[in-house]
Amino acid sequence: MANAEEGTDENERLQKILAKRYRELQIEEQKKAVARQLLEPAAYERLMNIRVANYELYKQLLDLLVAMAQNNKIGRKLSEEEFKQLLVRLTSKPETTIHIQHK
Question: What is the model's pTM?
Answer without folding.
Answer: 0.71
